[in-house]
Amino acid sequence: MPQTAPASAPVDRRSPQRPARVHRAWFVAAVTFVTIIGAAGFASLPGLLIEPLHAEFDWSRGTIGLAVSVNLALYGLTAPFAAALMDRFGIRRVVALALLVIASGSLATVWMTAPWQLVLFWGVLVGLGSGSMALAFAATVTGRWFTARRGLVTGILTAAGASGQLVFLPLLAWLVEHHGWRPATVTVSLSALAVVPFVWLLMRDHPADVGLAPYGGTYAPKPAPVPGAARRALRVLLDAARTGPFWLLAGTFAICGASTNGLVKTHFVPAAHDHGMPVTAAAGLLAVVGVFDVIGTVASGWFTDRFDSRRLLAVYYALRGVSLLFLPMLLAPSVRPPLLFFIVFYGLDWVATVPPTIALCREHYGDDGAIVFGWVLASHQIGAAVVAFLGGLTRDLTGSYDTVWYASGALCAMAALMAMTIRRRR
């Protein structure tokens, strides 16, 4: 008797003898890449806002850093719930709503007059929206649509954030310097809105929606929606928290966030400006970080498919720590070769930690790996939030960022040791 497709799976009426030359998974990955780029403007702006807001409103750098900290913390804490919501309502609905929230929060800052409004609009609204667009989004897409080449695709999608930084940062820096900070926030809002149609029209939640198997895998019916997204996210956290690898991954990723988003992305531009460097030149250097971040992250994804993820993490964190220890000696009024070398080196290492971290979450936690990574990402953002605030506070109290650079370098050395103690799952 001939077999029939399961009742729960839609029937693919295209001839199975003539498969598409390019698997649909690659188109979904392309839409995901464009979506992350379009939403990346919000991540480029905080470091550019510190000086203009301080000059216009006379708000302290610590106060502005608090709003950035709330943004970074919510970015991380929202991620695991967003991954669960994608299992409940689908990727397309969650991401489209997140982009609308980002656009609303960014646009509302144009009319703010008090620090609490900055915390509400930029910290809370943009934080919640960006958390739903976090790396858990990339982990969910690769987990559903790819069986083969997961590490490589994860690296490419992770690099999309850096590509967005490359696209937006020089433009936003130019707008801030020549037209003020308000046109820059409007640009971020419009860029998020522009991506919504791409997500709604082109994104698909699961390969079974179009009658396909994941790339490199076998066909499986689309799973039923998982109710109780918040309850599931908390249950996964409680289960993972009973295991040692979770705490080691969360600890190393907290240090990753502290040394990237919390420190360099938030405070590099004002720190360079303290040494006499023009804001546009400092922003241009961060854009160069974005160029080499793409190269480093894609290469890291390729390495993750072939080498021990624990050893990769140890190497990445150790090299990052060494580079941070040298940075205070490299800042100057103009861009010199040693500082440019630091920028290239740091760019290659910026988010190279993401593909091996996601791979270790999948290795240890299976189908819950994307949600576990969401919680690990939450620790990343909490680390970033703490340093974003402490960096501004340290600058207010001491007049220098040097202490924060040295402390972050020491933390990265600790992360390298922690990565090597993660046990392998056999």
UniProtKB/TrEMBL annotation:
Gene3D superfamilies: MFS general substrate transporter like domains (1.20.1250.20)
Localization of this protein: Cell membrane
Transmembrane helix among keywords: yes
Membrane disposition: Multi-pass membrane protein
Organism, as annotated: Streptomyces nojiriensis
Residue spans crossing the bilayer: 25-50, 62-82, 94-114, 120-140, 152-175, 181-202, 245-264, 284-303, 315-333, 339-360, 372-392, 404-422
Protein name in the entry: MFS transporter
Keywords for the protein's UniProt record, in alphabetical order: Membrane, Transmembrane, Transmembrane helix
Domain Major facilitator superfamily (MFS) profile residue range list: 27-426
Pfam families: MFS_1 (PF07690)
Superkingdom of this protein's organism: Bacteria
Matches recorded under PROSITE patterns: MFS
Cited SUPFAM superfamilies: MFS general substrate transporter
